[in-house]
Amino acid sequence: MLEKNIEIRKQVEALFLKHYKEWCLLSYSYLGDMSASEDVVQDACIKTLNRKKQNEIKDLKSYIGVAIRNLSLKKIQSSKKLQEIHEDRLQSSGLSHEDYLIDEENRIRLQKAVDVLPNKSKKVFELCVLEGIKYKNTAEVLGISINTVKFHLKKSFKILRLELQDAF
Amino acid sequence: MDITELILEKLNHNLTNEKEEKLKAWLKESYTHEAMMSRLERMKIEGEDFNDVRKLNPVEAWQKVLKKDNK
């Protein structure tokens, strides 16, 4: 079994080195993005290397080709879904596209600032402020007292005020 | 000569007759190849130059595969 795995790994490597550009071009013909296409090809090969029933693969090259095609199509579908969600949000918010971009920029700026908070304070801030969970429930979830929740929130706001002082 | 180079030369209209035959043989191998070629030809018409393909490095990419696989 182990020998078989080593053999398949060698075969995948040989095919990869020989057909990498061709496979990237195949994915690129769907995605139009070379970096995403490289990821797809690499992921398809990893998927092949980790497939449990490797002995069922009759033609390795064709198998990888189909995997690349499927992963490329999957990528297109998920980006379409994201686009739909983006458009839905835009419509329901009543914002213009420009407003939406500014809003999005502020959201990213806030997220970056939240990311620099100490771990515990970050969790408290995310639960209480971003998700709107009550102090009491946050305390229960994190196994801390309500006073500790309040302490972390105070600390978070202090740090965020400094981080975002030039932002708004 | 690898097939990618033949495809790129075909898309850039500088394929010799001998190479053209090799490409035709590859296209006939499967419908997937033909479909891929036709998508690429359409992209070429829309202004795609495919220059990034020549810069790809399979050896470096394989190292990435091994690295990702070990994670």
Name the features:
heterodimer, A: 168 residues, mainly alpha, 82% helix, B: 71 residues
Account of the protein in words:
The complex is a heterodimer of chains A (168) and B (71). Chain A has 168 residues and is mostly helical. Chain A has helices spanning 2-31, 34-49, 60-93, 97-115, 119-130, 135-142, 146-163. Chain A is elongated, with a radius of gyration of 24 Å. Chain B is built from five helices and no strands. The longest helix of chain B is centred in the middle third of the chain and has 15 residues, at 31-45. The A-B interface holds A 13, 16-18, 20-22, 24-26, 28-30, 32, 34, 38, 41-43, 45-46, 49-50, 65, 69 and B 2-4, 7, 32, 36, 39-40, 43, 48, 50, 52-54, 56, 58-59, 61-62, 64-65, 68-69.
- The helix content of chain B is over 70%
Rg of chain B, alpha carbons: 15 Å
Helical content of chain A (DSSP H or I, runs of 4+):
over 70%
Low-confidence stretches of chain B: none
Shape of chain A: elongated
Could you give the distance between the termini of chain B? Answer: 35 Å
What structural class do helix, strand and pairing data of chain A support?
mainly alpha
Distance between the termini of chain A: 61 Å
Q: What is the count of helical runs of chain A?
A: 7
Strand content of chain B: under 5%
Number of strands of chain A: 0
